[in-house]
Amino acid sequence: MSPILTDRIPVEIWQRILRFAIHVPVFFETDPTVVYGASAFPTYCDDRQYWDMERERNAFQRVCFSWYSYLRAFDHRLVYISDVLHGVVPAESLRRAYRIYISMCKRQCRKCRKADSHEGWTVPAPRSGRRETWNLEILEMDAEWDILIEYLSRHNRLANLGALIRRNHQHNTKLESICSLRFYYGLRGNEMQHLNNITTLQLQSVEWLRSHSLPQLRHLSIYLHTAALPEFVTWLQDHGYRLLTLYCQGIFSKFDVTPSIWLLCPEATALQLPPTFKWIPPPSSHPITHLRLDLALRLNLEEEACSYCGTAHPGVMEFPVLSVEEFIDSGICQAAFNDSWSWMVRGFSVPTDILCLVAILRMHGVLLVDKDHLTIEDYWVAELEVARWGIRDYTNVLFGF
Ligand SMILES: [Zn+2]
Ligand SMILES: [Zn+2]
């Protein structure tokens, strides 16, 4: 007997398709760089992709009742604390959120200001007997509210937390001490207790780095002073071979690394080097593709003609570490500067040759991007969107990575 043919697709298949259709890549990963590589950094804190997908989800919910019922389970994947304070989103949604953003609203309204000063924050009490673990996997903080940190830390609510982003100076480090994180961005990573899963780390303390084993660490952004450099180089000699990303920032009188940075970090595909770095080209076998450097202004007092357009630009943008020709000869395909395009385009008192530099590098197959990994075209599009739609500025990403 032949099987009965049907034109109905099983519910499980539809649900899988719908889940795929509302998936937001990068934004909901607790370990974005392991899944997507270092290219995930620029979009990890960009919530526009989430809101775009929420509009899609709302459209799907209007198709039929079964889709509506299924997709309701994905309400409030991202919750803004300010929306809870304003009463727009129910406090109960905190339990269901996969990502929570803690900040005052842009208007800094009275309710948010009161919460910021701990006057008006009434934490939603857990229902009696409800002590289940929350869905929360990613916590992003632009405000430091102790009472909220204490609330989140109770009843195993943070058992699933894998990524913690804290942009302000944190005096309460309870989150660092209790959570087993994979992604940490903050100033006081040295308070962390559970380190075996850490893959991505931003911190300032070399002493702490040397005294802990970080077997999974692959992406490191570190801020150093000259005095800490020898200790950091010693650490690199033992652990640099595992790094895929190293962003090294700070103030150095001299940045001497022995043996060369290419031998210390043989697998690194993204590097940031300080202006005092003594340039040595990478060997042709090295996998480096992205090099971030300072880009500094030199006044063109001799009125030299630009090699691209022939005019004498009043200001010339230069990498202090190496010449444009040396960069092109290095074979590295992406040059990054440690600033934003808005500063590069508008920040100087004299017109510069920045657009000619973009063109010269591009002629030789090198893409110039800013610290957010955006090209000049990306920047212009973002500026037009801000002007046309009034949406927020694009540059709200991890400034250390
Ligand atoms: Zn508010
Ligand atoms: Zn020019």
Order of helices and strands: HHHHEHHEHEHEHEEHEHEHEEEEHEHHEH
Number of helices: 16
- List cofactors, ions and other ligands: zinc ion
Residues in β-strands, percent: 5-15%
The backbone outline, from C-alpha atoms, is: globular
Radius of gyration: 24 Å
Arithmetic mean of pLDDT = 86
Low-confidence stretches: none
What is the straight-line distance between the termini?
A: 63 Å
Structural class: alpha/beta
State the share of residues found in helices, binned by percent. 25-40%
Strand order of the largest sheet: 1-2-3-4-5-6-7-8-9-10-13-14
DSSP, total strands = 14
Largest β-sheet summary: 12 strands, parallel
Protein name: F-box domain-containing protein
Based on the model shown, name its key terms:
401 residues, alpha/beta, twelve-stranded parallel β-sheet, two-stranded antiparallel sheet, 16 helices, 14% strand, binds zinc ion
List the helices and strands and how they pair.
Layout lengths: L10 H11 L10 H5 L11 H14 L3 H7 L6 E3 H6 L6 H4 L2 E4 L7 H7 L21 E4 L4 H8 L9 E4 L7 H5 L4 E3 L14 E4 L2 H5 L8 E7 L3 H11 L5 E7 L9 H4 L5 E3 L17 E4 L2 E4 L15 E4 L5 H7 L3 E4 L3 H6 L7 H10 L3 E3 L6 H14 L12
Parallel strand pairs: 1-2, 2-3, 3-4, 4-5, 5-6, 6-7, 7-8, 8-9, 9-10, 10-13, 13-14
Antiparallel strand pairs: 11-12
This protein binds zinc ion (ZN) (2 copies).
One zinc ion binds next to α5 and α7.
